[in-house]
Amino acid sequence: MTSNALFYQAGAELPLISHAQGIYMWDTLGKRYIDGCSGAITCSLGHQHPAVTAAMKAQLDQVAFSYRTQFESQVAIDLGDALVALTEAQLHKVFFVGSGSEAVESAMKLARQYFYDRGEPQRQRFVSLRPSYHGSTLGALGLTGYEPLERPYEDLITPSVKVPSPDFYRFKEADIETHVEAVLSQTEAAMAAQPEDSIVAFVLEPVGGASTGARMLNKRYVEGIRTLCDRFGCLLIMDEVLSGLGRTGEWFAWQHWGVCPDILVLAKGMGAGYYPVAGILAKGDLVDQVQNQGGFMHGHTYAGNPLACTTGLAVIRAMQNEGILDNVRELGIYLRQQLDQLKARYDFIGDVRGIGFLQGVELVQSQGSKAPFPAEFNAFSKITAIAREKGLLIYPRRCLNGVEGDHFLVTPPLNTTRAEIDEMMTLLDQALAEFSR
Ligand code: PMP
Fold it and tell me: In order of start, what are the domains of the chain with their CATH numbers?
């Protein structure tokens, strides 16, 4: 269906959505799709989750919107407390916004204001990874390490200092440990090359999403970055817009290593596709410092409204009541085994990586060469289109820089069952077989 007025997808003819239930979505022609990527890695509880929609309907009947400078809402307080509890009280303060990019910008501004208020206004530079993705707004784009997105706005964005992300697939050193040490010392050198006391924060995605095809950093690397942040006196910000809220089998990916950031950025899974709700969590002393100097000069109209917070709270409660983390831990291993089996059968699957229900598949010309398909071959969109035609939605990403291959993400709703994974894998297998022809 081609729209007259909308311009989201260049050249794409998309079906019209009709309705959805659980992991299934239907278009207006009656075709059924399995949502193998939770939309944009967002619909963590699938579609039409009864507890979430009931809570939202009840809130709508009471009050949908109240402005945060005019009223406090009990549900915002409760959601804040629930999030702090999920960090096991390692982070203490919460600020709500409406999207991932807004949350990233909020983290950047909070970090800057913290140092500004402390009398260190010269701390202005961010350090982030290449490749990475942190959002589409100009501030977040400055952190994002993905050249095609940065280029048209070079004069508008303030680029962060980019350091390489460890690459666990194409590393050149003898082993992963040596590679991680090499990346860390390169990072240390890049940070040391900045003017003294000029760094505000190091920003990273603990598990990349579309940017790296679900590349998960490791404990040694993240501990090393924490040490560097302490040494250079800057903050550590983790962007868990995609990896947060249960997707990796922990509430937050940093909990796999016990390395807590100073500011944590959340979005997608928080509203689980039911309402745009996002936010940042920060250490108490950091926020206190800002609040004691007049407060955080930031906010968006829809931030923390009752309907948004009701949605966020209902999502967390449903996840707790239904043991969703256990499901992700157990079936994440199963999903990975299934994808590894496909890799064993298809030579163009170079790498399967990730954790829990955040799995990435990298496409290459052959496993031996690890060479990416030529960009103009559009492997990522071919494979996604074939899968869609067969009734399976997966999340595509074009190869980043001609060095890495195209990839797609398999990121089902977190309450997906084993039988449903089997159903997804059958369709994926069919799609891969057709792609290989
Ligand atoms: N950070 C990360 C890690 C993301 O994956 C995304 C969205 N894909 C964003 C930030 C931006 O979020 P939004 O699209 O909600 O602005």
Answer: 17-49+323-436 (3.90.1150.10), 53-321 (3.40.640.10)
